[in-house]
Specification:
Strand order of the largest sheet: 9-8-7-10-11
Radius of gyration: 26 Å
Helix content: 40-55%
Distance between the termini: 31 Å
Low-confidence stretches: 1-20
Largest sheet: 5 strands, parallel
Mean pLDDT: 84
Number of strands: 11
Oligomer: single chain
Order of helices and strands: HHHHHHHHHHHEEEEEHEEHEHEHEHE
Structural class: alpha/beta
């Protein structure tokens, strides 16, 4: 399929009404708002305690001002450090409200901000303790590290966090395998844990009153319990309960395979079309490293299917799985589901293996009311070509295949579209796209170009639901 004819779709009679399912989206919006209020309240609370303890007064002197500013940056960094742990603890309420992409973005922002605050805390406190003499600061830092309670552990924790931050920078991340990056990222938990003794033994802001002690212990306990419950206990319990095993591995072309799985009571797993899970296949070395793969078929309560493209060591090993292989599973995760839907008509836009969750969503959406259009961008062999064609014929949804490699740095469409800009092409296929919910999944750069086109088309931001195919 080398050229795609731009065939205008019939224009709608007018803006459709919001369906009842919008109630879920409104609830998630309130949860996001409440989470933001809670974060700012915590930051303002510790700032207030700092001010009431003489923090503002101490800013009047050079040495005391340095120490006071160091205390404040340390407090704010500590709050954000624990917040970033909570953000990635897989708390179900936050998962449903933000989605993994949203939580990951907030996690990165909180992480880099916390790390900057931590460095400022160390530098300012040391400078202040050195009587404001910058040349004496290195020696003072050495003495503090070896003589103050908990400081040696805090230094080790800081080293762990430095490792995590450095490997999280995009320039470093693109040079690492996903498996290596994920393993290094686990050192963040060690860094957070090693910081606790220093905060409790030497931080007067943590133990200066009952209220402060309750606040900080409560925040630490919440972070610890969230990780233990939702990152450790729940995945183990689900894996034991559902006893997932591989039943078949089917080649799909273009370096991709579909893995079919069966288990017990999969209806109780709660997986929905559009979501992904973290999979650990017990097939030999490397099984401890989890890999996130999306469901490529709508769950039916009896079986699951994922489709994986060979993009690294972990994904390459999937093609060699044998029937009967046991599976440990974590999830389901992601907000690229019908829960986010606010309008009766839907547009799905996917590229390459990013079509995987949209294939499952199309199966669900096409079975219900409302118009469904799927724009499928691919360079080589299209995934699920027969399945999508059959789905379109049987249930009346519209399939728009877009063949060819991306035609330029500023376009997300393929060469087969012809000499029209992206916005014109999309409006030709879907004239009423400003009134639809739009679900997008693909590589990060490509997705950014799609979002730019949707913004130019007037699609409201709260109707655009994205999952990047990347890490």
């Amino acid at each position: 399929m080398s050229t795609l004819t731009l065939r205008p779709a019939p224009a709608p009679a007018g803006p459709p009404a919001v369906p009842a399912t919008g109630a879920h989206a409104r609830l998630d919006s309130r949860i996001r708002f409440g989470a933001g209020i809670a974060l700012w309240a915590a930051l303002l609370l510790v700032t207030g305690w700092w001010a009431s303890g003489g923090g503002i007064r101490d800013l009047g002197g050079w040495e005391s001002g340095l120490t006071s500013a160091g205390r404040l940056t340390g407090l704010l960094a500590s709050v954000l450090l624990l917040v970033q742990v909570l953000l990635m603890a897989r708390v179900p309420m936050l998962e449903r409200a933000f989605g993994q992409d949203g939580l990951a973005a907030l996690h990165r922002t909180a992480g880099f901000t916390s790390f900057t605050g931590m460095l400022a805390h160390v530098g300012l406190i040391t400078w202040g303790y050195a009587a404001g003499d910058l040349s004496a600061a290195p020696g003072e830092l050495w003495d503090m590290t070896w003589t103050m309670p908990g400081m040696l552990l805090a230094a080790a924790g800081t080293a762990c966090l430095v490792l995590v931050v450095v490997t999280s920078v995009r320039a470093a991340r693109v040079r690492l395998r996903y498996e290596s990056w994920h393993l290094l990222h686990l050192y963040a938990y060690l860094g957070v844990g090693l910081a606790l003794p220093h905060q409790l033994w030497t931080g007067q802001e943590f133990t200066g009153s009952v209220a402060r002690t309750v606040f900080w212990w409560g925040l630490w306990t919440a972070a610890l319990l969230a990780v233990l419950v939702w990152r450790v206990a729940l995945p183990l319990a689900r894996s034991v309960r559902h006893r997932l095993v591989v039943t078949a591995v089917v080649p799909e072309g273009d370096g991709s395979v579909s893995v079919h799985l069966a288990g017990r009571r999969l209806d109780a797993l709660g997986a929905r079309a559009g979501q992904f899970l973290t999979w650990r296949f017990l097939s030999g070395a490397g099984w401890t490293r989890g890999h996130p793969y999306s469901l490529s078929a709508m769950p039916d309560g009896r079986s699951l299917r994922i489709t994986v493209k060979d993009l690294g060591d972990g994904s390459a090993a999937v093609a060699r799985l044998r029937p009967g292989t046991r599976v440990l599973v974590e999830g389901p995760f992601g907000r690229l589901t019908a829960r986010a839907r606010t309008a009766p008509d839907v547009l799905l836009i996917g590229a390459g293996v990013g079509i995987t969750p949209l294939r499952a969503l199309a199966e669900e959406f096409c079975a219900g009311p409302g118009r469904v259009t799927l724009v499928h961008r691919y360079a080589g062999t299209p995934l699920f070509a027969r399945e999508l064609t059959a789905l379109a014929r049987a249930r009346g949804c519209e399939l728009v295949p877009v063949a060819g490699r991306r035609r330029g740095d500023g376009s997300w469409l393929g060469h087969g579209v012809g000499p029209v800009d992206d916005l014109t092409a999309l409006r030709t296929w879907v004239p009423d796209l400003a009134h639809r919910d739009v679900f997008v999944c693909g590589p990060e750069v490509w997705t950014g170009l799609v979002l730019r086109t949707l913004t130019a088309a007037g699609v409201p931001a709260d109707r655009v639901h994205v999952e990047h195919f990347g890490w």
